[in-house]
Amino acid sequence: MSSTEQGTSSAAPAEPTTAPESAAAPEVPESFYYVHGKDKVVHKVSAGALQHSALIHGMISNLGYTEEQAKANPFPFENIDGDILQMVVDWCNQHKGKPTPPEDTNLPKQKEKLFDLVLAVNYLEIKELLTYCCKQVAMMVKGKSPEEIREIWMIPTDAEDEAAEKEAKKRAGKEAAGETAAAAGDAK
Amino acid sequence: MGNIPESMKAMDRYSESIALGDAPKKQVFDMMEIGDDWRKKTIMDMPVSLMLKIAGNLDPVERTALRSVNRALKDLADDFPPIFENIELALDNNDDLSWRLNDRPRKYSGYEKLDKLTDLPGFKVKHLRLRCDNYRSTWNRNYPLEISLSPKSVDISANTTKEVIQLLSIAKPGDLESIRIWPVDDQHNFSSIFNTEQFQLAKNVEVISLKGFHRQILSHFSHLKSFKVKITGDFVEEGFEQIRDIISNFEEFETCQMGIVDLSNQFDIRNISKALEVDIPFGPLKTIIVHHRYEIPKTKKCLDFKIEQNEHRISVKIAKIC
């Protein structure tokens, strides 16, 4: 697990503490990188753990950051909630350099969290974790009726969908009309 | 996976904009806001590629339930090709149905889920295994079964000829190429199977146990490319030349294999070899093999025979050579 600290993406973070790594000391000093989510909490993660994420791994390879540069410029993932990024970082640390087990039972049970985790993991391109997450989402509706599936996955009916779309369009129309009126007023 | 339908594409653009955080905020707000409340994220906020990955974890029968949830999930479920290797159906005396898909351990009961599966657009099953689970009595059904499928091959296990015909009626003729019938205890009026449309349009047939075999039965096989029969009961070598003559007139014929269990020692391969003018060594032999090639009159084609006798078991393999 990595520990976290408050920080911002624009300023160099204070020294974050590192998670206890495996007992065997690596022969070559390991590089560390920094990531933060929507909450700006910076996570220090080893390059080995980050290898799970094809996206971050690609960014590291392309940028060729030194450790100092990496510390000064944490990778910003503003679209990922802080607690979700924490889960991802924890998973990457736990599975660093280890073969991934056939199942992962430590995924969030709360469906909203699980959905957010799926989106984050998909964005970060963490293949194994995405496989577990998708399986868990699927198992939520195993053997359920369409009505139960709708409830569990929080899916609107077609009628509800259409009503929401209509409402959104109506709102957009009103807003656009308001903006036009305001612009006309300004012009006068 | 086929083309992504429009309803799913729209959903995908929306969800990707949320997932990647690169859409203009106002656009995302418009789509997510319902009334004055923020809508919670649902599975519908995920890109289609993710939804397909999730749905791929459900078995095809469970996926049919997605089709009734909403239009987008119906399109998603329909993106999985509904082509299956095999379905095994077992019917009992009360018409209760149990079935399994693609040799998976999970067993389903009833017609409703099967109907939902077979109603999938483009549904196809290659092989159908049909079993009649009546241990104590035979079917008294005089009405057709409610199921109708179009497999390439069918494998039937039943106790009576009537049951075989009723189970065979599940497989629509036309696409059906191969039929296998496992031993039937009560073979009364067995020839009526040969009068079914399914049999008459099939190309390959295997009858695992046929009591008695004569030229009238063989005449029903004239349209087949290949057949395999295991014969018990009456079979005498005098009939062998007749078999050769009849098969030589089968235009579609390619190969056949006959296994004969001759417990009453009626069959003597030496008599056949004599009739075919093939020499075999004198004296007791554990296994006797006779090779024979028969030129079909007025054609350039031959029938190649390999007849093998091992105590009570006789195997006759015939292949047409052009």
From TrEMBL, chain A:
Residues 165-177 have a biased composition (Basic and acidic residues). Transmembrane segments: none annotated. Residues 8-25, 178-188 have a biased composition (Low complexity). Residues 38-96 form the SKP1 component POZ domain. Residues 127-170 form the SKP1 component dimerisation domain. GO terms for biological process: protein ubiquitination; ubiquitin-dependent protein catabolic process. Keywords: Ubl conjugation pathway. Probable essential component of SCF (SKP1-CUL1-F-box protein) E3 ubiquitin-protein ligase complexes, which mediate the ubiquitination and subsequent proteasomal degradation of target proteins. Regulates cell proliferation during embryonic and larval development. This is Skp1-related protein.
Automatic annotation (TrEMBL), chain B:
GO terms for biological process: innate immune response. Residues 40-87 form the F-box domain. InterPro entries: DUF38/FTH_CAE_spp (IPR002900), F-box-like_dom_sf (IPR036047), F-box_dom (IPR001810), FB224 (IPR040161). This is F-box domain-containing protein. It comes from Caenorhabditis nigoni.
